[in-house]
Design a protein that fits this description.
single chain, about 240 residues, mainly beta, Lipocalin, 10-stranded antiparallel β-barrel, 12 strands, about 10% helix, about 70% strand, elongated
């Protein structure tokens, strides 16, 4: 993966001329509502824990999530920043038989992704961007084993890391107002890995405002002292973007 990332980074740096001085910067700022279903898997001294949380349950329990994206463009070059924060509690069955009745997994995750992209193709209908960047993780997973024949215990695990990623995005112009977007990225360092996929359809309201809706999936896996942990977030996404 490091070799792939380095190759893409070099391709971005040397593909085409540098950003032309006469091109002006443009900016898109997006706020998103992501109706996520959450899955968390963690190896523990008591066995593997699998916990799930639906969006409806998260909304009922007032768990919190935040998503926002900023993009700056100048000619064929683009810089994208994407921030996601989740503070959720998922429930699952106990892996330790009658010792514990159930488990509750409290997950706090902050994801910060950054990309440098280069537009390798553009015509009246399709624009294709390729790029590379990073995804930073700040994770904290507290697993509560609810006591049955054994007393209730809490296992705390936390890890912060950065994964290099490569990315591709395709945008389709269906008409002057309607458009679609497909985006995929993947990366890792060996003991960590991550990938995501996004598909949306958007409508341009006017020169500055547009709305989008679609589906997003993101997954990460990392090594721990007990084995491996992972999470995935998936579901419909709705957003509004201001362009200037």
């Amino acid at each position: 993966m490091k070799k792939v990332f380095s190759g893409v980074a070099l391709a971005i740096l040397f593909a085409g001329p540098a950003v032309a001085q006469e091109n002006a910067w443009t900016y898109d700022i997006s706020m998103n509502l992501w109706l996520t279903d959450t899955g968390v898997t963690a190896d523990t001294p008591h066995g593997q824990v699998d916990a799930e949380l639906s969006f409806s349950d998260a909304l009922q329990d007032l768990d919190f999530a935040f998503m926002g994206t900023v993009e700056a463009r100048n000619g064929p070059w683009g810089i994208i920043g994407d921030l996601n924060y989740f503070n959720l509690t998922a429930d699952g069955p106990s892996p330790a038989g009658i010792a514990y009745s159930e488990v509750a997994v409290g997950t706090k995750v902050t994801l910060l992704s950054g990309y440098l992209t280069y537009r390798v193709h553009q015509d009246d209908k399709i624009a294709v961007d390729l790029g590379g960047g990073f995804r930073s993780f700040w994770t904290s997973i507290d697993t509560t084993f609810v006591g049955a024949s054994a007393p209730t215990t809490v296992l705390e695990q936390s890890k912060d890391w950065v994964d290099p990623v490569v990315a591709a995005r395709i945008r389709f112009a269906f008409s002057d107002q309607w458009f679609g977007t497909l985006m995929f990225d993947a990366g890792g360092t060996g003991d960590t890995q991550t990938w995501q996929a996004l598909a949306t359809v958007g409508y341009r309201i006017n020169e500055h405002w547009l709305m989008q809706g679609g589906y997003r999936y993101i997954e990460a896996e990392w090594d721990t002292d007990y084995g491996q942990s992972s999470f995935d977030f998936s579901g419909p996404i709705l957003g509004v973007t201001y362009s200037f």
